[in-house]
Amino acid sequence: MSRYELVSTWRIDASPERVWNVLQDVPRWPVWWSYVLEVETLERGGAGGTGAVHRITWGTTVPYQLAFSMRRTVAQSPQLLEYLFEGDLHGTGRWTLLPQGAATEVRHDWDVTTPGTWMAMMSPLLGPMFRWNHGLVMADGAGGLARHLAAQHADPPVAKRIS
User: Fold this and answer.
1) Is residue 80 one of the residues assigned to a domain?
2) What is the pLDDT of residues 110-120, one digit of tens each?
């Protein structure tokens, strides 16, 4: 079994509250994150979504997919979301949102293992490629989230009346 500790940091031009609203809405991730292929809600969870479980299928930049369930263990609006993962990957994830003026620093910490999968066997050889792939998937998430929030914030088009 191989272990990966991965950290991604994004700067998003939106308030922590707006970023939080999008990140905590896991079923809608495929709307803005192109590598999220499918989200199935298995359990809704309680207040703030704690206990919610989603099964997520991820595409990658290389020819394989990953699927795992993600259980929300902590939800402290608008600064912290924590998850447990089980499936093709096991471990923990944490989204931390910090205000930076009118923007938000979004930090994602991922501590996962590859239990009994082909990834575990190939990790000594392909570990750098797995990290590279993770970086591209996360960069896509940052860009998708920024575009999604910008589109939500845009003024609606104004219709002109022609007489």
Assistant:
1) yes
2) 999 887 666 66
